[in-house]
Amino acid sequence: MGKIKSLPDAEFEIMKVVWSNEPPITTNMIMEQLGKQKGWKAPTAISLLLRLVERGFLKTEKHGKERVYYPLIGKEEYLQFETDNFLKLYHENSFASLVSSIYQGKQAEKEDISELMNWAKEREK
After folding, report:
1. pLDDT in tens, 9-37
2. What is the CATH number of domain 9-71?
3. Interacting residues of 81 by C-beta distance below 8 A, sequence separation 6+
4. Which stretches does DSSP call E strand in the chain?
5. CA angle (88, 91, 93) in 5-degree steps
């Protein structure tokens, strides 16, 4: 398994369905839970699933006439990758910059600040 790469939106939407279901995943599951609302035809979903196989996010097996898919990259692993990427790209790896931009122009609630302070203290140990 190579390095994780960012996913285009449609492929990320499919992975969210994959992560929220017990494997194996079928094309029908993707169509039921996502494809119909997106207005996709089955070949579109199949094409996106195969692209995810090529990118190393899914593995596929044939069960009779049906092709099934299993996740190779977990949701937490992918979200950590994207968060690290975002922090590096937009905030020069500065956690303070990230937090500042989140609260820019918003009134931070005392509970939010307290929770953040407790989180930071836990990390110092």
Report:
1. 999 999 999 999 999 999 999 999 999 99
2. 1.10.10.10
3. 4
4. 25-26, 58-63, 66-71
5. 45
**Separation CA 46–CA 40 (nearest Å):** 10
Q: What's phi and psi for 64, nearest 5 deg? A: 65, -125
Reported confidence tier of residue 105, pLDDT bands at 50, 70, 90: low
Mutual angle of helices 42-54 and 9-19, in 10-degree steps: 90
Does residue 27 contact residue 45 with C-beta atoms inside 8 Å?
yes
- The residue among 33, 26, 31 whose CA lies nearest residue 67 is 26
Asked if residue 58 lies in contact with residue 52, where contact means CB atoms within 8 angstroms, the answer is yes
